[in-house]
# Entry
Amino acid sequence: MTLLRRLLAALRRARYPGSIAYWEKRYAAGGSSGSGSSGRLAEYKAGWMNRFIRENNIQSIVELGCGDGQQLLLAEYPEYLGLDVAPSAVARCRELFAGDPAKRFERYDPYHFDPATAQADLAISLEVIFHLTEENIYRLYLAHLFACARHWVVIFASDAVDTSEGPFPHFRQRRFTEDVPVGWILLERVPNPNRDISVSNFFVFARAGHIFQATNNTTTASAPATKP
# Structure
């Protein structure tokens, strides 16, 4: 890293207000959720999620970190609740999907959130975890994500430890699979074929009791395969 880049990175870190304030400021100024919510990567994520939901007969979804709603435009969800820390993102999504009664949006406050108010068959987190830069918010988010899910959790994220101070203070990779609550089983890690534009992969978790019930009923709970 050149001296200029190091200075710019240090300036960004000094001005970084924390994850919640950063995203509210970004959305309030008209900013987007980022490149992963549109284009090739968004199409891949939406196609994968739509297949997973159909194949497993999922009827309700809660997403922790719905962002600006652009990714959601490609989704085929029966019943959906989108949560986000940024009030501006929630307002934008409510306007974007005003004519869709199957979709609701609420603000997510990690310090006062009750998962009992947001129960769904499936809880999803799509490229959110590496934006949770504070340790306490990360821990609360992960606990809430799994507490909202009756049967399934799907996460699209990296699962790595990055000890370096990169140029973007709102990005921090984590080995989140080590912090998953007890009672959940990692069924599958699905490699992302778009590695040139994303560090994330799909991780499919199932509640242990749900897998036991599915086995007794001689049904198969499967994640869709991904072609390399």
Observations:
- The CA atoms of residues 185 and 209 lie 10 Å apart.
- The chain has six helices and seven strands.
- Confidence is low (pLDDT under 50) at residues 7-11, 214-228.
